[in-house]
What we know:
single chain; Rossmann fold; three-stranded antiparallel sheet; alpha/beta; ten-stranded mixed sheet
Amino acid sequence: MRSVLLLIAVAVCSQCSVAAVVRSGSSDGFGERRDTETAISLLENELMASSPSELTMVPLTLIQGADAKGAVCLDGTLPGYHLDRGFGSGANSWLIQLEGGGWCNNRRTCVYRKTSRRGSSNFMEKALAFTGILSNKSQENPDFYNWNRIKLRYCDGASFAGDSQDESSQIFYRGQRIWHAAMEEFLSLGMQQADQALLSGCSAGGLASILHCDEFRELLPSSTKVKCLSDAGMFLDAVDVSGGRSLRNMFQGVVTVQNLQKDLSSSCTNHLDPTSCFFPQNLISDIKTPMFLLNTAYDSWQIQESLAPRTADPGGIWKACKSDHSQCNSSQIQFFQEFGNQMVNALDSFSTSDQNGIFINSCFAHCQSERQDTWFAQDSPQIDGKRVAESVGDWYFDRAQDVKVIDCPYPCDTTCHNLIFE
Ligand SMILES: *[C@@H]1O[C@H](CO)[C@@H](O)[C@H](O)[C@H]1NC(C)=O
Ligand SMILES: *[C@@H]1O[C@H](CO)[C@@H](O)[C@H](O)[C@H]1NC(C)=O
């Protein structure tokens, strides 16, 4: 029996008000709730599908021969990507965007994922709209519009980090091999000659860009300018509303089910437990390649799934507040302020490096680089008058010294496009 989840999400900002009704046919059979991230990406698809402006639809390409290298999705199907070729002065520049979409943290949720686009190319969209940092229009994406732009699909369940398999349940945990097979393919398509490259990703993909940043650097000639961007990838090891650590529990499940211990950075695992080494706060200061961290201080996904998930709030007293910040009382806002402070503190040592960039705005949102309205639009979010695309561009092209901006605390920022779930 298919259950239908009805989700109404509204993006609000000072001058705009976009509402969308997202329907998701849930056929999981486990009575599982869709995660916020899925909801947000469904919302995004819905908004894009109904957008009147002309959209760039880019077809899915499967990586032929990847299966011979054991580089397969959870269900054993071929991994895939979408490539829109660069042109003009960008013909030799490459942007790789790692797709996000949560994680599976036990055998049951990984088996379920095999029957979704997050675990099988059989279920992936055959074409995707390229917007925001992936757009091919200079007025939507001033610095990267004419680069070769790639979206690498996410179907391994662990931020492209695993390399194992579950024989008895026939689940392949091959994120690391997918990463390698994809990079080989992109190098052969011309990335080998890149003069500039940027590895990016949002959410679970933002974490993946942190995990793989230095490896990406090493794949390319030393003459290539290489940097990495993580959007909404700063998942904090935070205490939830009931005093527990919901996200740590979830990450521990991811690390255990895929046996990630051996795949994580040894400079971290030699002094911390493997679950801690899946948290960016314990990795970012060791990254040698220039890195930009873009995140909201009150990340919507983390509020919903890490700070106030249903398991930490069985009575549902946070339900209204976590779906719409205007429903929060002062002590709830204070809880989020402390989370925001923890985010900023986690960047302490990272921010001492001149080559790194930071944009932390005091908004309730998740993933701002792929959406047109948050990346680069007339009224998109700003800090000190600069929009996200301008800050990332200034940092990548060294047009400004030290691009590190941290917003004043809520509610001072009137440029946010906050997400509201009803
Ligand atoms: C962007 O892509 C669309 C769809 O493929 C195409 O029609 C358009 O000409 C492209 N724009 C530029 C500036 O290349
Ligand atoms: C805020 O709301 C929470 C949850 O309903 C409640 O426990 C708390 O006492 C409230 N605090 C204030 C200051 O009203």
